[in-house]
């Protein structure tokens, strides 16, 4: 078996990966908080889409790719299949979006959260192994069954807790603390799955050229895309009215309606002539 290294660049890659996971989780929870105050089904749908990009695209998939930058195998050249890599990102966003849809439409309850958590967790674990399947090298890859099962369990538990957070948390400090916890869970799932992997290199005489893109070649386009997504999410969250804004607006609307009603009543009374008292003749 070849030597497998998960921290080739020290703590840089896991540190950045954890930071991306926290940021994506934070933005996703803020989006779901806006989702709960949405007044129409269309608004709720778009907030679910944005939350799916934040959680699935940034907190999970971008974290996965960044962590993979620190992965190396002694004596092997690693490349990535671009279509499979892109498909893994799409899977992450879609399964998270469907999980949010399960708990976000209708009255949230424990049953919905559990069903959504199982579906999303299994989907996220599938995304992880699909992303690893996109990796190409001259060798045979094997997985430890127990660690694979552990990574799936972690993914399901993390997804269930995350979905519960999306339907319950409203206070900023609590959301921030939840994002830190979610970051730990996502990174724990990833590195547990990576620990399950072992590689047996092919004989030098059988080794050929490895096709695909290197992680360095993918870093710039993926980094630009992630920055654009984060920027769009920050703008959308900042531009959208908060629950307090909506309540203040509703209060002002009620005050204005009361003033208009009072003015209309006053004007109506002013146009009606009051009856005069009857005075007999000769008096």
From TrEMBL:
Organism field: Catellatospora coxensis
Keyword annotations of the record: Membrane, Transmembrane, Transmembrane helix
Record's protein name: MHYT domain-containing protein
PROSITE patterns in alphabetical order: MHYT
Keyword Transmembrane: yes
Domain of life: Bacteria
Membrane-crossing segments per the record: 15-33, 45-66, 86-106, 113-134, 146-166, 173-198, 218-240
GO CC terms in record: membrane
